[in-house]
Amino acid sequence: MTSLASDADLMALAVRLYPICRSITGAGLRETLRILGASIPLRLIETPSGTQAFDWEVPQEWNIESAHLIDPDGRTVIDFQDHNLSVLNYSEPVSATLPLERLKERLHISTRNPDWIPYKTSYYRRNWGFCLRESDLRQLRPGDYRVEINSSLEPGSLTYGELLLPGASKREVVIFTHACHPSLANDNVSGLVVASALAQWLADRPRRFSWRFVFAPGTIGTLCWLRNNEPDLGRIDHGLVLGLLGDAAPWTYKRSRRGNADIDTIVPHVLRELDPLSRVVDFDPYGYDERQLCSPGFNLPVGRLTRSVNDGYLQYHSSGDDLSLISGESLGRSLLACRSIVEAIEGNRRYLNLSPRGEPSLGKRGLYGSIGGASPASFQMAMLWVLNQSDGGPSLLDISKRSGLDFESIRSAAIALQNAGLLTELSGME
Amino acid sequence: MTSLASDADLMALAVRLYPICRSITGAGLRETLRILGASIPLRLIETPSGTQAFDWEVPQEWNIESAHLIDPDGRTVIDFQDHNLSVLNYSEPVSATLPLERLKERLHISTRNPDWIPYKTSYYRRNWGFCLRESDLRQLRPGDYRVEINSSLEPGSLTYGELLLPGASKREVVIFTHACHPSLANDNVSGLVVASALAQWLADRPRRFSWRFVFAPGTIGTLCWLRNNEPDLGRIDHGLVLGLLGDAAPWTYKRSRRGNADIDTIVPHVLRELDPLSRVVDFDPYGYDERQLCSPGFNLPVGRLTRSVNDGYLQYHSSGDDLSLISGESLGRSLLACRSIVEAIEGNRRYLNLSPRGEPSLGKRGLYGSIGGASPASFQMAMLWVLNQSDGGPSLLDISKRSGLDFESIRSAAIALQNAGLLTELSGME
Amino acid sequence: MTSLASDADLMALAVRLYPICRSITGAGLRETLRILGASIPLRLIETPSGTQAFDWEVPQEWNIESAHLIDPDGRTVIDFQDHNLSVLNYSEPVSATLPLERLKERLHISTRNPDWIPYKTSYYRRNWGFCLRESDLRQLRPGDYRVEINSSLEPGSLTYGELLLPGASKREVVIFTHACHPSLANDNVSGLVVASALAQWLADRPRRFSWRFVFAPGTIGTLCWLRNNEPDLGRIDHGLVLGLLGDAAPWTYKRSRRGNADIDTIVPHVLRELDPLSRVVDFDPYGYDERQLCSPGFNLPVGRLTRSVNDGYLQYHSSGDDLSLISGESLGRSLLACRSIVEAIEGNRRYLNLSPRGEPSLGKRGLYGSIGGASPASFQMAMLWVLNQSDGGPSLLDISKRSGLDFESIRSAAIALQNAGLLTELSGME
User: Which of B353, B357, B424 is most worth mutating to test chain A (most A CB atoms within 10 A of its CB)?
Assistant: First the structure.
C-alpha cells in the first residue's frame, strides 16, 4: 500500500495524477481511480451508458488516443500529447481538412487569461474543438488545416470509486470529491490526494461513525451515486465536499443549504482554531457536487471545504492551474484540517448529567482540590460547564462555544466526568 | 372617465379636491367621493348616524353653509369662504354676540406655527369655534363680536367609498386612505389622488389577487368599514394604508403590528430599489387607519406608506399644508412606487421544483450553454437559485433576498423554468 | 425590631456581623442568623449531620473556641482571636508540636495578595491549618512550633434561615444570599445586610407574589434547602441571588441559565435606569448559589445581582475584604436597586384589552382631549401602546421596551385603562 502520510507523499501522488486526461467517463478516469486504489481499498462502480439518473442520462463513454491540428505548411500547431486541455473534452472523432475561417468556430481561447489554454467540455452535445492560447490563435495563418482527433464515443459506462470504513454505528459521514477534471492541479488533483490520504489515515482508527468516501465525476457521477444509494441516504448525519485544497489561499467553508446543520458548526470551529484567516460563506447553488447533494429533493447536511473557491483564482479552469500552483505543504495542512474535522465529528458527543440536581461533589471523586476558597482551574471550569449544560440538548461543541473554553478541554472534562460515573453519552446512533 | 395617468392629471385632481370642506360626514365628503368616481367606479356606502361601530357610534351628520366672525366695528374678521380650516370642524350652529374675553375661549391658534391657521375638530362633543393665525388674534380689539355659523348637526349618515377589482383569487389586498381632511393638500388630498390613480391603472391589468380600495373618514369611517366587513377579513393577505404622498420627502414605510408580514418584506424591498433614502420604521399605535386595522382584535397584515410621516413636517395640520407643498412629480413618483408594490405583491409567487432530486439538466432544455467549463451567467445563476430554493417555502422575493439577485431576474428565471416544465406555482389561493 | 431603613442602620448591622467566625455549620452561623432575627422574623431550620442532600452529605458540625501558633521562642505568632481567617475554616482539633519544615505544609498564603491573609476552607476532608501574610511566613524561624486548635467536629446540624412573606398569590419569588463566610465584609456581610433590609421593607407592603428569603450556607446549605423544598419548586416564578453589594463598583447582573426568563428582562431594565454603568453578563456555572439553583435538574429562573463579581476584585477572599471596602451609602444604593426590582416584579403585569377591535374611544371616557387635530401627549401615547399590545402576550415591561416609553408611564396608563374598564389583568397566578 502506497503511504500518504507525509507532505512529500501527497505531492508525489499529485505529480502522478496530474498528466492523466480524465473526463466524466473513460480510461483516464479509471486509471486515476486505480492509482488511488494503491493507497486505499477503493471499490469501482460502473454505471452503463444510457442509465437514467433522475433528470439526466449517462452519456456514451469517451476515450481519446491522440489529436493533432496541422497548419497549411504541415506543421503540427496543436498536439494533444503536449497538453490534454488543448482538445475540447468529449470531442467526437474527426478527420477533416477545413479552411482557417471555418476552423475558428472550433477554437476556444480564454478571454480572461489569454496566455493560458482554457478548460472546455461538451459532454451532452456532440461537438469537437481545440483550446489554445490567444497568442497561438493569432499566429495561425490563412489556409487549409488538417484536423485529426482519434477519439471514440461508444456505449460503455461511467466509473466512480467508493470506500466505506465501517464504524460502531451505521450512521454515516460522507466525503465527496470530484474525479473528472483532466490536467488541472488544484481543481481537482488536490481533492483526490487529500481525500485519499484522509481515508488512509482514518482506516486505522477506531470510528464511531461509518465513513464513506466517494470519488466521482462531477454532476452525472454524483447523480449516479445518489441514484444507486437513494434508499440509504437517511443514514447520513454529516457530509463534506472536498476540492481545491492545494493552493496557498486560506480555507473557505461553504455552508450546507440547511445552514444550521451540525457540520456548519463543526467545520467553522475547527478552521477558526487552525487559521484565523479562514472564511465561512453561505450556501449558493453553484460550485461542486454540493449542487446535487443539497438540491431540495435531497437537502443533505453537506458542506464544502476548499482553499480558493471555484472561479475564485486567476488560473481557474485553465492550463495555469498546474503543479506549480500547489505544494506538498499546502496539501498537508489541508489534510491536517480534514483530520481535525474528523476528530471533531467523532468527538462531538452529547451527554446527560446523571446527577443533575445541584452540582455533584467533584471533591469526593478527586476531581476538585480539597482546599476551598480559591477559584477553579480551567479544567474544573470545563467540568462545571459540561455538567451544567449536559441536559441532552447541547453537544460538546455547543458547550465549547457557549463557555469560550476550547473543544479539547471540554472533551477531556466530559471523559473525566464519564469515567467518574457522572455523565452518560447520548448516542442517538444505531 | 377622467384619466389619472400623467403627473399633470394627478396634480389637476389635487387642485380640484383641495378647496372642498371635508369632514367625517356630510356633503363635502360625498362630493369628494363623487369626483373620484369620475376616474374609478367607486361605490358609496352610507352608514346611518347612531350606528354602533364597536366602541364607537356614528355621530350626527355635519354640514356647513357659511360662517362669519364680525368685530365691534362691523368688519368681517373671519369668513369660512376664505379658508375652511378657520372654522372648528364639526362646529354646531350658532348665532350670538359675545365680548372678546368670552370669545377667546372659542379661538384656536397653533402654538407651533403661529403664522398658519391650525386644523382643529370636535367630532364627538358639541362645540363651536374658530381657528386663526396668532397675528390675527392679537389684532382683535375689545368689544362685542357677532358670531354666525350656519351649520347643521342632524341625523344622516357617514359615507365611505369602495372599489373591488376582482382577481383570479378571492384572496384580497386592501388599500386604505382617509378621506375626511378639509383643505390640507398633503394630508390627505395626496392620498386620495394616488390611491385613485393606482386603482385606475390596476383596473386594466390581469390580477391574481382581488384588490379592494377604501376611501373612508379616519377612525370612525374605518371602524364602519371593519364592522360592515368583519366576517370577510380573513380573506385579506396584504394591506397598505396610503397618505402624505405629495411632498418632497423620501418615502417612509411603517411596518404592520405583526412586523413580519409579507408586506413588511415586500414594500421595503421595492422602496430600497427606488430610493436609497427611503426609510422603514417600526409599528406604533399612532398615525392613520393602521391604528384600527392593526388593533389587537384585528391585527391585519397592513403596513403604511407615506413620504413625510404624520406630525413629521412643519406644515402638518395647518393652513401651511397647501398646494404649494405638493407637486405632480412627487405624486407621480409615489404612484410609481405603489405600482411597483402592486407588481411585487402580484409577482411574489411560490413555486415547487418538479425535478428536485439533483439539478435538472438545463442544457438539454436549451437553458444553459452546451460548452462547459465557464461560469454561469447571471440569468443561469437566477435559475439555479430558483430551482434550489423552490421547495414550497421561500417566495421569489425571499429567493431574491437570499441570493442577492434582483427580483426581476428571479421572476424571469421562474417564468422560464415554469415554461420548461420544471416548476409549478403553489398558489395558496382559493 | 431593629430598623434597617437608613444607610447608617445598614452599616451598623455590617459592623456587628463582620467579626463573627461563620462557617457552613456551627455557632457563628447561628449567631449571625439570630442577629438578623432582630430585624426580620427569620425561622431557623436545622438539618442534621449525615443528611443526604442529592450528591452531598451534611458534614459534622464545626465549632471553634480558640487557636494559637507559638514559635520556638514561645511567642504567639498566630492567634485566632486576632483574625478568624487565620485558621483554615473547618480545621479539626489539634494539639501538637512540630518543626517548621513540617508545619509549612499546613500554612497557606495568598500568592496573589501576599499582604493579606487568604480565606481557605476544608469542609469535606479532615484537615487543619493556618492562613497568614507572606511577610509573616517569611519571618518564621526554624525550630519546633506549638499548635493548639481548640475546635470540635461532632454530629450536629446545618442551620439556614428562612422568611416567607405571603402575597395575594402562592406564586413565589425567592431571594437567596449565602451566610457562611467569616470575616469578609463585602463577601458576604453585605448580602446579609441588604437582603435583611429588603425583607424588612417588603414586610409592610401589599404583595401580589409571595416572597421567600433564604439565608443559607453556600452549596451544602442551598442543597439542603432545595432538598427540603423540592416538591414546591414549581411555585417559583422569579429568583435572585444577592451578594457583594457593599463595595463601590457598579452593579452586575448575571443572567439565569435560561437566559430568557422574565427576571433576565426585569433586572437589566431596572439597573439601566439607575446606573448606565451597570453591566449584564451571561450565565456561567461558577459563582454563588445560582450554581445549584440553575443546575440542569432544577434550572430555576434565578439570576444574580452583585456589585463586583466573585473573584473580580483585588481583596476577594482575603483579609483585605474588610469593613473599609464597604460603605453605608453603597449598601443603601444596593437596597434601593433591590426595592426597584421588587416593584418591577410586582408591577410587571399582563393585561387583556377588553375592547380589542379598533381603538376604544378614550375621549368619551375623559381620557383624551375633546379637540382633535393635535398630537397625543405622552400619557395618551402610553395608553395607545398598552391597548394595542395587551393581547395576553406582552407584559408591561415588554410594552415599555417596545414603545421606548418609561415603565412608570406604561404602568400608570394601564391602571387608568383598567379603571376605565378597558383592561383586565391576566394574573396567571393562583
Answer: B357
- Closest listed residue to residue A360, CA positions, set A426, A421, A424, A425: A421
Closest CA to A361 of C194, B149, B413, C54: C54
Q: What are B101-150's pLDDT values in tens digits? A: 999 999 999 988 899 999 999 999 999 999 999 999 999 999 999 999 99
Query: In the complex, which subunits touch C with 3 or more CB pairs below 8 angstroms?
Result: A, B
Handedness of CA B152, B157, B158, B163 (dihedral sign): negative
What is the grid cell recorded at C45?
431550620
CB pairs under 8 A between B and C: 86
Quick one: average pLDDT of C326-342?
98
> How far apart are alpha carbons A253 and A242 in whole angstroms?
10
Contact A163, A212 (CB under 8 A): yes
Q: Report CB contact under 8 Å: A376, C286.
A: yes
Q: Are C70 and C108 in contact (CB under 8 A)?
A: no
- Average pLDDT (C254-271) is 96
CA distance A37 to B411: 48
Q: For B379-408, what is each residue's pLDDT tens digit?
A: 999 999 999 999 989 999 999 999 999 888
Is the CA virtual torsion A27, A31, A32, A36 positive or negative?
Answer: positive
Residue C400 C-alpha, separation from nearest chain B C-alpha, in angstroms: 12
Task: Calculate ∠ Cα A357-A362-A366, nearest 5°.
Answer: 155
Mean pLDDT by 10 residues, chain A (430 residues): 95 98 98 98 98 97 98 97 97 97 96 92 96 96 97 98 97 98 97 98 97 98 97 96 98 97 95 95 96 96 97 95 98 98 94 95 87 80 96 92 91 95 81
Q: Work out the angle between the directed axes of helices C407-419 and C396-403 (0-180°, nearest 10).
A: 120
What average pLDDT score do residues B314-336 get?
97
Output the CA torsion A216→A217→A220→A225 (10° steps): -10
Model pLDDT for residues C213-231, shown as the tens digit of each residue: 999 999 999 999 999 999 9
CB atoms within 10 A of CB A8: 11
Instruction: Give the pLDDT score at A372.
Output: 78
Buried b (16+ CB within 10 A) or exposed e, B402-416: bbebebebbbebbeb
Shortest CA gap A396–chain C (Å): 15
Q: Pairing state of beta strands B236-242 and B210-216?
A: unpaired
User: CA-CA distance, A338 to A306, in Å (whole number)?
Assistant: 11
How far apart CA A424 and CA B11 sit, in angstroms, is 76
Task: Write down the pTM of the prediction.
Answer: 0.84
What SS3 class is residue B355? coil
Residue A15 region by backbone torsions, left for phi larger than 0, else alpha for psi between -120 and 50, else beta:
alpha
Give the closest residue to A105 by CA, choosing from A121, A124, A128. A128
Whether A121 and B387 lie within 8 Å, measured CB to CB:
no
Q: Which amino acid is present at C24?
A: I
Q: Does A356 sit within 8 Å of C297, measured CB to CB?
A: yes
The pLDDT of residue B374: 73
Q: Cell for A109?
A: 481561447
Q: Hey, of A84, A89, A286, A321, which one would you mutate to test binding to chain B, going by the most B CBs within 10 A of its CB?
A: A286
CA distance A310 to chain B (A): 9
Q: Round to whole Å and give the CA distance between C17 and C195.
A: 14
Min distance A384 CA to chain C CA atoms (Å): 6
| DSSP state for residue A427 in the 8-state scheme | -
- On the question of pLDDT at C430 being above 60, the answer is no
Q: Give the residue carrying C-alpha cell 453537544.
A: A395
* Eight-state DSSP code of residue B297: T
Closest CA to A349 of A250, A252, A428, A231: A428
Q: Residue-wise over C323-336: b if at least 16 C-beta within 10 A, else e?
A: bebbbbebbbbbbe
pLDDT for res C239: 98
